[in-house]
Design brief:
This protein is an alpha+beta fold and 344 residues long. It has helices at 4-19, 187-190, 311-341, and strands at 26-29, 49-53, 56-58, 62-66, 73-78, 86-96, 105-111, 117-120, 128-135, 148-155, 170-175, 212-219, 223-230, 233-243, 252-258, 265-277. Helices cover 15% and strands 33% of the residues. The strands form 2 sheets. Strands 1, 3, 4, 6, 12, 13, 14 and 16 form an 8-stranded antiparallel β-sheet that branches. Strands 2-5-15-7-9-10-11 form a 7-stranded antiparallel β-sheet, with no helix packed on it. A hairpin with a 2-residue loop joins strand 13 and strand 14 (233-243). The longest helix has 31 residues, at 311-341.
């Protein structure tokens, strides 16, 4: 007979191992908000997206929002709003050109407006909803390395701070180097520190032989997270994570780009949108200061191990589990032999 304390030890060890497992997200693909070759139907139209401006679609290669020419602007927006409560959008893209000086960049949108050309990376200003900007040209942001990726939540009234590259509007952002894992410079240090990235690491977002990817994940009332990936570095790297961000319940998914005197090719290769859910996602709790209880900010010089633990920590817990099981079995065997001996 196994004592209650032995079952308790077994249960505790099992919980330790389970707690270290990564968050499992289950998903359902949303065809209405996804793009893949050949992009167009047999009648050379897209059933789910509208596009305009200088956008060019090559059915075997890309959706080119702008060509490497001055004064171009292009966009593509979903015809239906994205009404899923929780979702994940993965975008594969390329930014490239022939010039040493280049600009201006591209944007990803989840807004109430759709298909309205304008001055903010090819789309309208004073938008309502979320804009993610992949900015390749530096106007006036001292201490910030470009290319720079940032998020802005528009209220329908506020204008984009174009002269200062969105400094007044930024929710969060990161600089991008040749290796995303080496040169992501997060929100927590960007404002007060002069951060430099070696010149050979400053152009991963542009003129690479490989495509780049961005993955935006949203759980309503929980968090909004942006991750970046380069095919030369297969691991996803977190650019930012924001708690308690609310995106309009009716928002159209779109992409746009703009060139001025300087130019680049801005191309969308593939978009995968999924409705996701996870039983492990919980609403953020508030600390004593009214903010989030967990500070997710980080610096590129932070050498502390991640809070969730790594693969080595997982194996340590797994070994601990088996040690506890072996100890419980040995204790039970000893108790059983003592019980038999006490009968004589």
């Amino acid at each position: 007979m196994v004592h209650r304390w032995q079952w308790a030890l077994l249960g505790l060890a099992a919980q330790c191992v389970a707690a270290d497992q990564p968050e499992v997200k289950q998903s359902v693909s949303l065809r209405t908000h996804s793009l893949a070759q050949p992009y167009l139907d047999t009648d050379m139209q897209s059933r789910w997206f509208d596009y305009g401006g200088d956008t060019i679609i090559r059915t075997d290669q890309y959706i080119r929002l702008t060509s490497d020419r001055p004064s171009q602007s292009g966009w593509i927006f979903s015809r239906l709003p994205l009404t899923a409560t929780n979702w994940e959008i993965e975008v594969e893209f390329m930014i490239h050109g022939q010039n040493n000086l280049y600009g201006d960049g591209m944007a990803m949108w989840l807004t109430k407006q759709r298909g309205m050309p304008g001055t903010v990376f090819g789309s309208t200003d004073r938008f309502e909803g979320l804009g993610i900007f992949f900015d390749t040209y530096k106007n006036n942001r001292p201490g910030i390395q470009f290319p720079y990726v940032m998020a802005m939540m528009g209220d329908g009234q506020t204008t984009y701070d174009q002269g200062n590259d969105g400094k007044a509007n930024e929710l969060a952002g990161c600089s991008v180097g040749a290796n995303f894992s080496d040169a992501l410079l997060p929100l927590s240090v960007r404002k007060d520190t002069w951060l430099t990235v070696p010149s050979n690491q400053a152009r991963a977002l542009r003129n690479s032989a490989q495509t780049a990817k961005a993955r935006l994940t949203y759980f309503q009332d929980a968090y909004l997270k942006l991750e970046l990936q380069h095919k030369d570095a297969p691991n996803w790297v977190e650019c930012f994570r924001l708690d308690s961000v609310t995106i309009p319940s009716v928002a159209y998914l779109g992409f746009s780009a703009h060139t001025g005197e300087l130019s680049d090719h801005h191309e969308i290769i593939r978009v995968d949108t999924r409705n996701v859910y996870s039983p492990n996602v919980a609403k953020p709790t508030s600390g004593a200061d009214g903010g989030s209880a967990a500070d997710t900010r980080q610096t590129p010089y932070d050498t502390r191990p991640p809070k969730s633990g790594g693969l080595g920590w997982f194996f340590f817990k797994l070994i601990l589990f088996f040690v506890v099981v072996a100890g419980a079995y040995a204790g039970y065997t000893f108790w059983k032999s003592q019980s038999r001996g006490s009968r004589f």
